UniProtKB/TrEMBL annotation:
Its cofactor is NAD(+). Binds 1 NAD(+) per subunit. It comes from Hucho hucho. Coiled coil: none annotated. This is S-adenosyl-L-homocysteine hydrolase NAD binding domain-containing protein. Pfam families: AdoHcyase (PF05221), AdoHcyase_NAD (PF00670). Belongs to the adenosylhomocysteinase family. One of its GO terms (biological process) is one-carbon metabolic process. InterPro entries: Adenosylhomocyst_ase-like_sf, Adenosylhomocysteinase-like, Ado_hCys_hydrolase_NAD-bd, NAD(P)-bd_dom_sf, S-Ado-L-homoCys_hydrolase_CS. The keyword Endoplasmic reticulum does not apply. CDD domains: SAHH (cd00401). It comes from the Eukaryota. PANTHER family: ADENOSYLHOMOCYSTEINASE, ADENOSYLHOMOCYSTEINASE 3. Keywords: NAD, One-carbon metabolism.
Amino acid sequence: QQESLIREGVSGFLVFDWQIQFADQKQEFNKRPTKIGRRSLSRSISQSSTDSYGSAASYTDSSDDETSPRDKQQKNSKGNGDFCIKNIKQADFGRREIEIAEQEMPALMALRKRAQGEKPLAGAKVVGCTHITAQTAVLMETLSALGAQCRWAACNIYSTQNEVAAALAEGGFSVFAWKGESEDDFWWCIDRCVNLEGWQPNMILDDGGDLTHWIYKKYPNMFKKIKGIVEESVTGVHRLYQLSKAGKLCVPAMNVNDSVTKQKFDNLYCCRESILDGLKRTTDVMFGGKQVVVCGYGEVGKGCCAALKAMGSIVYVTEIDPICALQACMDGFRLVKLNEVIRQVDIVITCTGNKNVVVREFLDRMKNGCIVCNMGHSNTEIDVASLRTPELTWERVRSQVDHVIWPDGKRIVLLAEGRLLNLSCSTVPTFVLSITATTQALALIELYNAPEGRYKQDVYLLPKKMDEYVASLHLPTFDAHLTELSDEQAKYLGLNKNGPFKPNYYR
């Protein structure tokens, strides 16, 4: 059975010229750094460089070697040295990690198979700034199979899996990233991706908006040839809307974060599983009976609360939005203000996407041993800077775990210095990332192939038809069988039998 994705323009629907073969789909489918030099203490100023997807489950630690990757000259087996990573010798191990991830990313593998005959990204030069993990590697290699050239940097100083970066470099990808970058390293890596004589990017894939920000700041003329931006994070999308509102957005942009397949899968299900993993790996805490306050009840907050409740924790929620607040109440959580419970809770988790949610006043009032962590993209939610004062002592007890000790002996347990917990301290479920990565790939294809004039200099949402297509690519994994509408039923509901089944405004 074949179906063409519908063709509509600026109204929101994408144009997708190649055929979808659903029959084929069923067959297929990382001691606090103390070394001197560039690897200084990572006190990042960037709102998104220091937090986002990153895996502390990377089996190679950035502190293994004092030499900065920037001071090394490395080449892969083919003599190519257009990359900067920790250790190219880890490539074989990284390749095995990637192969494992491929098994849980059916949609990307299906798209890659289709690329044997078609190259919808032929001529595309994609510059990316995301978490460099095994899952991202599958996405990058899929984009390459679809015809794109890729240059990549990490959106998080702790998120890179060094062995995966090595495998990508060995495979010919220009990757500039390693686990434990300094602030200076971070921006240097982004610049190396963008600033290459004779190579001009025409597509941007961003996570957090730092890459887009850097190009606007340093190389604004590049936007004359850039066809579009694909952004997947709350923080990055917020930055894009600010640019659009100010009239400074000079290319079309796709807001992947607010697609249904990102919000209701990646944000919810990914965080529901990874919050427990991150907390367990760093603190060995037992959740039963613990009092936890989760700041924010969006999709990330919902996932965190559901997991903690299931483990027997007593969960409180803070929220500014009355709709989300009512959802929290009806899901059985007590809605509170943070100052009402801050003295009694055992764990504080932020996931609002805002700044200064947990300020010094609250940190001073926490009980001894309180665990403090962040599940939002940016490191702005917890006021970590206020803890860098002479009267407080910092003690690194294990990777990504600091005890901050007050003069009276009280200590709190701060995880990942307030950066994104799951990708800094553990891993995330590959299958869920497959959904987001597929959406990113399709958004790149659409923007790259869209005729001039279809998209204006604004931020666009993905249509339901694309969301439904991404979901359908993953159903065969579960041996799931969709019910089909009869002609009479479709007419009664006023729907096309093949979808979309939800209006475009449905979120």
